[in-house]
Structure formats: structure tokens, C-alpha cells
Amino acid sequence: MIDEALIESTTADLYSWALRKVPDDTKRALTDARDREPDSGPKAILNLMLQSALLAETQDKFVCSDSGVPVYLVEIGGQAKWQGDIKAAITRGFAHLVETIRPPLLKHVNNPLTNERGHAGKDMPLISVDLIGNADYIDITCVPKALGSGRWSSIKTFISPDLAEIEAFIMSAVLEAGSQHCPPVIVGIGIGGTFEHAAKMANRATYRPIGSINPEPILAAMEERLTTAVNATGFGPMGTGGETTALGVHVDYAFGHGYTPVAVCFNCWINRRSKVRLHSDGSAERID
Amino acid sequence: MAVHHLQLPIDRDTVLALAVGDIVFLSGEITATGGLPAHKRIREFLAERRELPVRKTGTFVHLPTMMEEADGSYEVLYVNPTTSTRFNDFIPGFIRELDLRIVAGKGGLDAASLQVMQETGCVYLSLLGGGSPILTAAIREVAQVAWLDFPSHFRLMTLKVENLGPLTVGMDAHGRSTYARLSGEAQARVPQILEDLTTARDAFEATAAVASNTDQAAQSVDEPVTTGPDVA
To answer: Which residues in chain A have their CB less than 8 angstroms from residue B200's CB?
Structure first.
């Protein structure tokens, strides 16, 4: 049985791991990018990124000082056996982490109305829930989202757009972010559904492993040409020039009405993401 | 691309020798802070002609810092740069009033700062975002801390650093900005990028149409076989 104590301890572990380890797929993508870059400047910056990732992992340090806002995705399988208040357990787990984590977290969570800072408050941590068919487990993903890349998210609602309009908007968001979002980034795109569903799809699209092929041929082709397009902008690693501005562009879509929201978001090069699968027998398996 | 190991503070001639794309390592004292509240308070102090509670170092770094107090002294636990463009409105005034030779952070600054940098002799250095383990290792001492009413990353402090880097010269004192250049070049490429996207889209749609026609042709050939002459 998955109980509150397991969810609580998992919540704390996930956040701490995400701050200290650049995911393996991301390190591979950075290595590939370094090998592809023809010029010494961007090559050196990508090397420095890999060095920082290695030091953080081996010396148990944070990769970035901005620990971001805590974001948890809970995916519940239909056959999962659990009991208790998941939301309360996650909230307690995060509070416990804030109390105990070494080194301590900077106070990056704030009240948007008063700018009061702390780590607790209304809707903290941010939790979203999905249902995943008949699986007999619960997956919890943690993606601390920081200012550097979080602030460049963009959404626009079109009326029956064609792909040319959609892709032009995506490129305008990329140009707007320019050198600012700690590139090379992962670009997440959500097309269709409703306002909040498009944003959710865009955000979740950044969670997908880099290099994975989209099962929908129309999206796989779109991702390939958009990756080429984003990298043709030339902003490069840390925005000081080069051929690698994106490690990947991931697109998702949903059927909707004629009004079509298109959402674009970015994850910076450290691509923080951790994931644990909680099995119904009460065991926890680290996936990311 | 030259590599410079600079002992701080530096003079105008040293600044003029730096060019965009150069690599820099800094040793000596820097002024560091990471937050909007600190920038607002600095501006208030300058407007009121009040002395800042930390000494002028000539180097101003957007570097949020986590520190801990123990026995009356402060230890830096970690640092990392923040986005400088957030502070575009403040920096031209700071460069003039605080006699800055170096501003550093990530993401660059705007044209107003570039102009003042050229007039006074100042450069912008880019730090690695997500480079906390590397950058923190260069911090030797917290020499001064002010504004303890702010959270750690918003405080104003003087840090002693040794070989802080590698940092990239993003804007120099000769009016050159890597950020402005790259942004301009990217904008200029947009028509071609959109045209290439159209070409790639058309190619995919043509391939998809051929595949669809082939499927339909195969289906129509199969039809008599699957329905069978006996059924007909």
C-alpha cells in the first residue's frame, strides 16, 4: 500500500535530487552539442556546463542557486493501492525538506500580491494530478521551475490557424527569449485544447526525454524542423553565440474548438527533473 | 580570443583592452547582490547622496548568494548569477555613480548601458548560469554584508574572489554588444527561417500525401480480393 509517509519522504527526496543532478539524457544532449559546435567559444561553454553538472553530482552541490518554485506532478494508475491525503503528504514533505536540506534553500517562493517571501503559502507546492489508465503505481515527478527560464513562457489564442501561423508564433517567442533563458533550452509546445490545457501540454512536453521520437509523424516532423529553426537563430550556449540554442523542441496537441491556444515554454540547460514510481506494494523506484 | 587574469580593481586602460568574446578570470573584491529590492535601495541611497554601507569595488555582479552566519562571520554556501536585463533601468546610473569598470551577470544589458559603458569605460561579463559549483569554489571570503533585513540573495555584499571564471566579455567599452549583435542577426534571419520552415512543411506534406495515395491505391487493389468474386 502507498501511504502518506512514503509520499512525504518521496516528495522531499525528489526536490533535493532535482537540484543536484542534471538528467542523463540532458548530459548526453549537451555532450553531443559540444561535439557538433564548430567554434571554440560555444564548445568551451558547453564543456563548462558539463563540468558544472559533474561537480554538482559528484560533490552533492546545487547546480543553480535558484531552487525555483516547487512543482509536482502526480500520475495515478487505476489499479494503484493508496490511502491517505496525498496533497497534505506532499505539502508536509516539502516543508520537511525546507527545514532539513543542506545547504538551505534561498527564499524564492513569494506572494505575488505582497512580495512576501518564504516557502509556504497558498497552493504551495504546486501540485497537478493526472490519471494513467490501469497502472498499479503512482508516478510523482518534480520539476523545480526557476525565473531564468520560467519568465519567458508565452501563450496566444488563434482562430483556426494553419501550421505556418503556429510556427511563426513559436519563433516569435524564441526570439523574445533570445539570450536570456540559459540556453541551450528544451522548448515545450502545446497546441489546442483550452487555455490551461495548452499551457499544461507545453510544460509537460519539456518533461519528455531529449532525443525521444514523437509517435505522431506530423509532430515528429514539426519537432525536427523547429529544432533546426531555433538553432538557426544563433543565440547559442548562454546566449553568447553558437549553433545550439535548443537541445530539443517537444510538441503536444489536443483536439479543441476553432479557437486554438498555442503555448510555448522553456526549460534551461540544467533541465531539472526527477521522478519516482511508487508501487502498490509500498516500494519506491527512482526513474529519473 | 584572449584570456585575461585580472586583479581587481582595474583601471580604464585595462577595460579598454578587453574585447567581446574574450575570456576573463577575476581576483580581488567584488560587490554582489541578486535582487530588485537591493537595486531599488541602492538607487535611493544614490539619489539622497548617501554612502552605501559597502565600499566601492568597481565591480558589480548580479550574483545571488546563500550565506550562513557563524560566530559573527559569514560563510558563502553557494552563488550563481541572475539575469541582468531585469535591472536595465538601474545600471546606467550605477555605472556612473559607483564608478563601475565591470558589471557581470547573465543575459547582458540593453543599449542604454552599452552607451554609458562606452562613455565611461566599463564592460559586461557573462557568468555561467547553472555554474554554481564552479563559481562558488572561487569565493574566498565575505568581506562585508549589508541590509540584513533582506533575504540572503538580496543583500548587498563585498566578496573576495580568486579566479572567478571563466567569464565571457559580452559587452565591451568600444560599443560592441554580443547580445545586440546576436539579436539583430537573429531578427534578420527570421524571413529565411520561416521560409525554410515552409519548405520543410511542404516536403513533409508531399511525403504524407504520397504515402496516403499509396495506401489508398493498395486498398483499392486489395478490394476485389478481399470482397472476393464469390461475394460479388
So the answer is: 221, 224-225, 228
A284-286 sheet: strands from edge to edge: A126-131, A71-76, A137-142, A274-279, A284-286
Which three cell numbers mark B45?
541611497
| Displacement of CA A267 from its chain's centroid (Å) | 6
Same domain, B159 and B207: no
Q: Say if A209 is an interface residue toward chain B (CB within 8 Å).
A: no
Cβ contact B132–A171 (<8 Å): no
At A151, the amino acid letter reads R
Same domain, B223 and B136: no
Range of the domain at B222: 189-232
Contacts of B10 (CB under 8 A, 6+ apart): B58, B101, B102
Are B151 and B36 members of one domain? yes
Q: What is the pLDDT of residue B229?
A: 40
The answer to whether residue B150 sits within a structural domain is yes
Q: Is residue B26 part of a domain?
A: yes
Domain spans in chain A, listed from the N-terminal domain onward: 4-21+63-146+272-286, 147-267
* Within a domain: B227: yes
CA distance B178 to chain A (A): 6
Query: Which tens digit of pLDDT belongs to each residue from A157-201?
Result: 999 999 999 999 999 999 999 999 999 999 999 999 999 999 999
pLDDT digits (tens, 9 = 90+) for A67-109: 999 999 999 999 999 999 999 999 999 999 999 999 999 988 9
Does residue B193 share a domain with residue B102? no
pLDDT digits (tens, 9 = 90+) for B48-91: 999 999 999 999 999 999 999 888 889 999 999 999 999 999 99
For residues B213 and B118, membership in a common domain is answered with no
Of B131, B189, B201, the CB nearest to A225: B201
Query: What's the confidence (pLDDT) of residue A228?
Result: 98
d(CA A97, CA A80): 26
Q: Report the gap between the CA of B230 and the closest CA in chain A (Å).
A: 39
Looking at the fold, whether B147 and B203 belong to one and the same domain comes out as: no
B192 contacts on A by Cβ (under 8 Å): 232
- Residue identified by cell 521522478 is A275
Q: Are B228 and B158 contained in the same domain?
A: no
Q: What's the gap in Å between the CA of B12 and the closest CA on chain A? A: 24
Q: What is the pLDDT of residue B230?
A: 43
Which of B64, B78, B108 is opposite residue A103, by nearest beta carbon?
B78
Residues A15-46: tens digit of each pLDDT:
999 999 999 999 999 999 999 999 999 999 99
Indicate the pLDDT class of residue B226, thresholds 50, 70 and 90.
very low
